[in-house]
Amino acid sequence: MAYARKQDGVWVALAGGETVEHDGVAASYETVSLWTKAMREAFGVFEIGGGEPAPDGQQIVSSTIGDENGRPVWFNAFEPIPSAPAPVSVTMRQARLALLHSGLLKRATDALLALPGEEGEVARIEWEYATSLRRSHPLVASLGQILGLDDAAIDALFREADAIE
Q1: Beta strands, E only, 14-57
Q2: Strand 71-80 and strand 58-68: pairing?
Q3: C-alpha to C-alpha distance for 154 and 55, rounded to whole angstroms
């Protein structure tokens, strides 16, 4: 449980080891936490209420104490949970299956077939005979650009590929 008291009109959380006073009587935080609600409130100490839980895909990044109907309540600030970093490499099998599941395999294959000259030959050899695909490989950036994928979308494909057993 967390407790707060008003100080200069603002709710302030009590810290462990802190002492509160009322009518010449002092009590430690630990003692106050053992009291009944009525006893705490006689000292001007109130349990800090609620605070919304983080929505799915979000995390609490900060909490402040505010006033709601004369009582202290937590107000939470949220932000998206960061994605796990993309794996450094995946197998070509995983890469192709991820592209297939995303509806991009045919477009990727057609794009490789359409690349002209020696650059196209090198890309097709890499695509056909490599056993793994590094996220940093120039072919990944080239295909991503052709397919209209930004870095975040490519990272998501690599994470999806990495999850394939």
Answers
A1: 19-22, 25-28, 45-47
A2: antiparallel
A3: 26
What proportion of the chain, given as a percentage, has pLDDT over 90? 76
Distance CA 34, CA 150 (A): 56
User: Which letter does DSSP use for residue 2 in this model?
Assistant: -
If you search the block for the tokens 């998206």, which residue do you land on?
A: 80
Counted domains in the chain: 2
Decide: pTM greater than 0.70. no
CB 20 within 8 A of CB 44: yes
Q: 7 pairs with which residues across the strands?
A: 10
Considering only CA atoms, give the Rg of the chain. 29
Written as one letter, the residue type at 96 is R
User: In the listed set 80, 99, 129, which residue is the last one of a domain according to the structure?
Assistant: 80
Bridge partners of residue 116, in order along the sequence: none
